Write the structure tokens for this entry.
Amino acid sequence: MAGYFTLSIDVELAWGRCDYPLQPHEHAALAQERQIVARLTQLLAQYQIRATWAIVGHLLLPQPAPRRADGLAHPDIPRPMLHGEFRDWLSHLPPEYHPFWYGRDIVAMIRQVSPAQEIGSHSFFHLPYHEQHTSPAAIAADLEQVRLWHQREGLPCTSFIFPRNVVGFKTQIYQSGIRVYRGHSRRWSDRLPLRSMRRLANWLTFLLAWPPPLVEAHHEPETGLINVPDSLLLFGRQGIRRLIPPNNLWRMARSGLDGAARSGRIFHLWFHPSNFAAESDQQFALLERILSHACALRQQGQLQIMPMADYHTLPNAH
Ligand SMILES: [Zn+2]
């Protein structure tokens, strides 16, 4: 019984932080994004790996967003997008066609890779799909834009990655044609009462190179969706995370891959291209080591490597 390895990549450029002004270190990371995507695609081609790239749909626009006379971007989208929002969700979107907010060239790069990569959705405006805080009308508009632009560009839309991993509005997502999403694996640290405690516990998990959870694809009868939860984030080396020895991530990923091969379960690794911006060469060396190990297990018939959408057609997703 072979296990599974799935790699999902959230492609969002500046949209990941669209409700805050960009900080200088974020500018530096965004300026490297295209170069990073190019290196990632080379590695995936070299190791013959099909990953899931979940894109923010707004990257597909061929010209700057439409605006009302007073400057409001996308005036047709219902406002406010978040309940009680004091500043518009799109207030930081620049009026010009800025490479941090638009990225057709990035999507084109991903589409050229052999073996073919899966392109999925990471929403249209990177709105949190939070059932209490976000307006259902804005979510409906967000999903409609995703459907429209993916269709226009001939892109599939089977897999969905929730912005900020906030999972909600699942019935609406299924109705828009999406079938698979990346959920969050419950960890022991999730039970801690305070956010600061959870963050510290999460950091300790990495410091101790705690083995990541192996997961299973679950079909959810109440929504129709298949959940392929995450196992491990290949995080960027900024701030306090720099104190974690890079070898720990390798030990955790190896344990995930070997464990998946042994148990028949899934090891689901994920990251953003921007996680390769700091200490870039070291990060790429780490990823290459992981991909190379996954390939060795695949060659031995112990591991299947597949994108998220493939769990939709897999007979034993339960
Ligand atoms: Zn995101």
